[in-house]
Amino acid sequence: MTGSDDFSFEINGDQLALQGALTLAHLDSLSNRLQTLSTVKVIDLSNLHRMDTAGAWLVHKLAQNNNAEVKGTNSAVAHILDQISHYDRPLAPEPKHVSPLIYTLTGVGKNTVHVWYTIVGLVNFFGALLVSIWHTICHPSRLRLTAIICQMETVGVNALAIVGLMSILVGVVIAQQGAVQLRQFGAEIYSINLVGRLSFRELGVLMTAIMVAGRSGSAFAAQIGSMNLAEEIDAMRIIGVSPMESLVLPRFLASIIMMPLLGFYATIAAVIGGGLLCWTVLDIPPTTFFTRLREVIPYTDVAVGLVKAPIFGALIAIAGCFQGTQVKGNAEQLGYCTTKAVVHSIFLVIVLDAFFAVFFSEIGWV
Amino acid sequence: MSDSDIIQIRGLKNSFGSQVVHDGVDLDVKRGEILGLVGGSGTGKSVLLRSIIGLQQPVAGSIKVLGHEMIGKDPLTMRMVSRHWGVLFQESALFSTLNITENVKVPLREYYPELGDSLLDQIAGYKIAMTDLPEDVGIKFNSELSGGMRKRAGLARALALDPDLLFLDEPTSGLDPVSADAIDALILGLRKMLGLTVFMITHDLDSLYNICDRVAVLADKKVLAVDTVENLTKLDHPWIKRYFNGPRGRAAAESFEARKTGA
Ligand SMILES: Nc1ncnc2c1ncn2[C@@H]1O[C@H](COP(=O)(O)OP(=O)(O)OP(=O)(O)O)[C@@H](O)[C@H]1O
Ligand SMILES: [Mg+2]
Fold it and tell me: Residue A147 to residues A132, A245, A251: CA-CA distances in angstroms?
């Protein structure tokens, strides 16, 4: 390549003489000296045998700013210089600089407005979802069974391994920590109550919801978001396919159906984990463990878990799909909205769980 | 390999699973020429381009670019070679999180970090001007541009490094005839200024007639012929005949003749 050509320049009074090849690779030696070159009145190019457009630009700018005369150009160099001058025009205006205070205040204001719009958008989205559910009830043939079953597989079946493992470990931890504390009162046997009731009422479903939010809520947002970026959603709309019915509803229904199943499965796994620990560490045989479990767990505990699960599922699906529809413009937005989907759904799940805890105690399901 | 060949492809074979896209492609691109590549939709023009620039791993064959073997090259060679080329992708492939000025500055920053920011801004500015885009496009993002504007912004980024070798995947598709002519003129002008070599995929018959020195025809998984358009039209191959002697082909030929005699 000719990029290895050397470049040098000489300043002689108000004369600047360039030698060699003025290309991007050598531009810095000249551009760094622009201050000292402000007195140059003549630019001599007679020893310059090559120049690319960037070099030509620099010479053009220098000549323009100094009102300098360019001389000694051979025809090729002259041609580039002439061409490049056609492309000289004012740069696009930079966004105005604002003071940090104003910037922060504007940021707070924008975010507040944004939160408000998000809430309105979410209500809007929920409304549209209800409408499409109603449409589907009126025309049951419009229900996309294949899509629902496909989503049930990804949301539920594919999560079995990880949810199971997680729950067994949670069960082990509760039993172990419970046993350590209860041993001080000689009441180790009560770790069975602890494992059973905590798993059925709270942890089975809650941990599952967090896992599903991380696995599927994010996937919903990313799938719908990237379809949004590629104008696929617009294409669906104008073809007459409702994105609500074909994308959101299957995910929503699949989550509602799979969450109780997964939650119950996780509960059983946690209880088994607890049972294993009791058996191996506390020497409580499985038969004793399960007999006691049946004595201390009221049916309402099972109900508490199973009532919450579909609601959590609905929340996760709505938060995920809604954030997917909010993606606009670029890849960064996609990541941002996917993160928000997970954060919002976990947050909402925990808030709602706290509410349910109080609610069920108040109605006497203790 | 003769010194004048900037790209040399021998016995190239590409396939996706059981679908063979290329089987025995041979092609030379000479230094300083504008080579057009034509072929039906889906015949593998973009795949050929991707294998030349090293994005697609061929099954067999050899590809030399600027004297470097591109198959099984190490990252260092790749970096050395890619400093000398510019690529316009079919879908432009602008970085969506950067505005257009920043997009054009990406290759400059990568290879010439010593240049000051204001100089880079100026360079990006005239590159954008070269491709005939209005100046306020610089601060816009990919998602805020029209299809044709994206094409031109992609071209501005491809030109950022003043490359010796320019790869263009359908530079004029989606452009109005005036802008398409302007792009053709720009490519010709750049070649005259910098002596660059252009490898151009195009369906634009006017570009083929007006700016391409030679045209390669990709069909039947091979490069069937490489020649000037005038000579190609005389060849006896059903697809080539239909391509150049259909109504559009004849119209382009006539307007080319008219321009030549007019000038
Ligand atoms: N990533 C891929 N995986 C599988 N097949 C592919 C892939 N990319 C391309 N193909 C196949 O290779 C063939 C050639 O595709 P290519 O994009 O090169 O076509 P083209 O000649 O550029 O067409 P057009 O003029 O429409 O752009 C097509 O049949 C396409 O289906
Ligand atoms: Mg293509």
Answer: 16, 10, 8
